[in-house]
Hints:
Distance between the termini: 6 Å
Order of helices and strands: EHEHEEEEHEHEH
Helix content: 25-40%
Strand content: 15-25%
Amino acid sequence: MFSSGQQFIFTCEHGGNKVPADLQWLFENEKELLNTHRGYDPGALSLARLFAKRFAAPLFYSEVTRLLIELNRSENHQRLFSKQSKKLSVQERQNLIATMYLPYRQSVFKAIQAATDTAQVIHISIHSFTPVMDGKTRSTDIGLLFDPARKSELQFCENWKSRLKQSLPNSTIHFNRPYRGTSDGFTTALRTRFSDDQYVGIELEVNQKFVQDKPAWTNLQKRIVASLKELV
Length: 232
């Protein structure tokens, strides 16, 4: 169970596949790429909005494609820019950092910093992942990504997983799959700025195989949100 001394903040870094009009030429011959998992996380933004509404909590999100600039990577990461956005000049890429990347990250950081004055922040970063990667089918339905060395995150995820298994007994729920919670990412960066007592950073990953069936996806979203609500 979690106390009223905690503040939820939700983010969705890969909420859409939009491209500003002046940069659409980058994808002129690869428009179909924008609709794949490489372009955005299908379903993630609708789930994030449901979380924010249910918890009456702040939501920060981007609907610009991750192929333009990757908000879930460190500024010096080799995949901050995709093959497409690397066609831009150094100055143009710096402009993307200044106008899209830094404002997004700084707005989330400031919200967390302000909330930690009176509460422990529970930050849920919401993503979805492709069911098949490199020809291999992934067995995970729902993944909870965190740093096991941070006791608050471990406890939080153990409790949430228990609730998820009760609500979705036929779902396969894994810790730190299909990705490691300590890999380069927004929550990983934020952990370096806040202590375990101040900040709990969790990446929620949901298999995109559920998104195609609209009634089933609607039901799954409600169950996932309800499972977290039960902890409060």
